[in-house]
């Protein structure tokens, strides 16, 4: 049971390049999330998907787009990367209405030069 | 709006000392959930505990214990007899009661260093 899998683990981009971060979960969870973590800060929610076919903005959505491809997969796209988007990105999933926690992926460390 | 404050940015203790990490939260909701996560140097997030707003019982799990006090909007975390392996960043987080998705609001974290 892999849990939440994120790819890639590391990436360096140049300003203006585009990129898609991939996330997949194998726990049959309905809800999926993308967070970013900047140095000295907690995680901040970028976008989330309450269920397949729906997506909503979180606290810091500007500069990002998401796609809930199916129940398992939730991708995050940077259309035109900016240095301010240098961060560690975490994907998470949860079965919202049941007791438990969010399950987090191991993170993607993204640097934009 | 929800807010979580972890006023202690960094704490250093010597092994075997007890240490308490503070967490203060703000929310207008009457039903909510509180969490603690551990982030070791390797970077992953490790779930430690989830507590709902109706359950104010303190919880103990091995060397870990949590003190939830609604009257002071606090959810503090104590490590007893700390060990070097406890060195990590610890995050407190808050979410509303889920209707569909549960979105977490994180504090800024407390860096705990346990010295041998």
Helix proportion of residues of chain B, in percent? under 10%
Helix proportion of chain A: under 10%
The coarse overall form of chain B would be globular
Secondary structure class of chain B reads: mainly beta
SSE string of chain B: EEEEEEEEEEEE
Name the descriptors:
heterodimer, A: 113 residues, mainly beta, seven-stranded mixed β-sheet, four-stranded antiparallel β-sheet, 11 strands, globular, B: 116 residues, six-stranded mixed β-sheet, 12 strands
Walkthrough of the structure:
The complex is a heterodimer of chains A (about 110) and B (about 120). Chain A has about 110 residues and is mainly β. Helix content of chain A is about 0%, strand content about 50%. Chain A has no helices and 11 strands. In chain A, strands 2, 4, 5, 6, 9, 10 and 11 form a 7-stranded mixed beta sheet that branches. Chain A has a 4-stranded antiparallel beta sheet with strand order 1-3-8-7, with no helix packed on it. The mean pLDDT of chain A is about 90. With about 120 residues, chain B is an all-beta fold. Helix content of chain B is about 0%, strand content about 55%. Chain B has strands at about 5, 10-15, 20, 25, 30-40, 45-50, 60, 65-70, 75-80, 90-95, 105, 110-115. In chain B, the strands form 3 sheets. In chain B, strands 2, 5, 6, 10, 11 and 12 form a 6-stranded mixed beta sheet that branches. A 4-stranded antiparallel beta sheet of chain B has the order 3-9-8-7, with no helix packed on it. The mean pLDDT of chain B is about 90. Classes of the chains: A mainly beta (about 110), B mainly beta (about 120). The interface between A and B is medium-sized, with 30 and 23 residues.
